[in-house]
Design brief:
The protein has one domain: TIM Barrel (Alpha-Beta Barrel). It has eleven helices and ten strands. The protein is globular, with a radius of gyration of 18 Å.
């Protein structure tokens, strides 16, 4: 049974749920693990059936096998393309013009879709000019193969350069952000995105399960009858322009992640968590 209560962030003509589904280890870590196909399909079909509508993947994940499995899960569950938002990413070795066009075409083929909702530069490559990459990205938007352009792991200087090169607004900067990782708060990127109407997509929102059970977190979790991890996610998505993509293989944890979006933290609780 799908969970209906969800909050969203809207950017121009795209509406993204505050909590999506990350797939960084679905299909294998780096090399595809085909022997575990029934397990991977169980994970993805469970997420779809619970009501996740935003799936984040990359050509790097299991060398593209994660993308292929998402396409298969959509087909097996009868999920309509228009009911799902797909984010995928191009790896830095493919950021030159022709390589990027080919990388996108390969992602479309593996996903078995006609378009990608949000296409990100996964990591900047200092050896390849952003101008070259954005020439390809802009063309892909014009051709309708991608709907929106995004970036990932960009500092403030690179983010501003990307904005100047993109013919359409940059929808998101996907960055590591959690209660135990505030680097992009300190370097000004999060504030800049919020002030310039750009979404922040927080990856590793639970800090690789390293969230420390401090007094504030424990007491707030108790008040809301929630887990520590749910409160950590609720703290993220309560912030303006912040969405997140936790990964969970266990259906119980998947459900808990979705339910975290409906936890309403007070300003006092937000400050207690920020200061903890």
């Amino acid at each position: 049974m799908a969970i209906r209560e969800m909050i969203y962030e809207t950017f121009n003509d795209i509406t993204l749920p505050k909590i999506g589904f990350g797939t960084a280890r679905v299909g294998g870590r780096i090399i595809p693990n085909h022997r575990r196909d029934p397990y991977w399909m169980t994970i993805l079909c469970s997420a779809l059936e619970l009501g996740f509508t935003h799936f984040d993947t990359a050509e790097l994940y299991a060398l593209g096998y994660s993308e292929r499995l998402i396409g298969r899960a959509m087909r097996d569950t009868g999920t309509k393309r228009e009911d799902i938002l797909i984010t995928t990413k191009v790896w830095p070795i493919h950021l030159r013009y022709h390589s990027l066009l080919l990388a996108c075409q390969n992602s479309l083929r593996r996903l078995n879709v006609d378009y990608i909702d949000v296409y990100l530069i996964h990591i900047p490559n200092p050896l390849i000019a952003l101008k070259d990459s954005f020439q390809a990205l802009n063309q892909l938007v014009r051709e309708g193969k991608i709907k929106h352009i995004g970036v990932s792991n960009f500092n403030l200087k690179l983010l501003q350069e990307a904005q100047s090169l993109s013919e359409t607004p940059i929808v998101t900067n996907q960055i590591p952000y959690s209660m135990c990782n505030r680097l992009y708060e300190k370097n000004g990127v999060i504030k800049y995105c919020q002030e310039n109407n750009m979404l922040i997509t927080a990856y590793t929102p639970l800090g690789h399960n390293q969230i420390q059970p401090n007094n504030a977190l424990q007491s707030i979790a108790k008040v809301h009858h929630a887990t520590l991890y749910q409160i950590a996610l609720a703290w993220l998505v309560a912030q303006p322009r912040v969405i997140t993509i936790p990964m969970a293989f266990n259906p119980i944890h998947q459900k808990e992640n979705l339910e975290a979006a409906s936890i309403k933290l007070s300003e006092t609780e937000m400050e207690q968590l920020r200061s903890a």
